[in-house]
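Changelog entry

Holo records now carry the ligand SMILES as an explicit input line rather than a separate metadata file. Below, a converted record for zinc ion, shown in the new format.
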Amino acid sequence: MAERDIERWFADQQARDARRREVCVSKRRFDSEAEARAVALWDRTRFGTELTCYRCAECDGWHLTGGRGRSHG
Ligand SMILES: [Zn+2]
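Structure line, unchanged by the conversion:
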């Protein structure tokens, strides 16, 4: 791999990491999957939004993703 390619690859990885961190801090964080699921269920009951919980590699917690409409999660 040319040095330039490595630099580009590295910059790309950093941009990806930064984006992931941004998403992480902007989202609600849960300590456990059970907690995340409970909130997802509650949101579905109240707002009809379909949320999926996933394990976050950044903070080692759980976040919710998905949903429809104006939500920006
Ligand atoms: Zn996170």
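Spot-checked after migration. The chain has a mean pLDDT of 91. The two ends are 37 Å apart (CA to CA).
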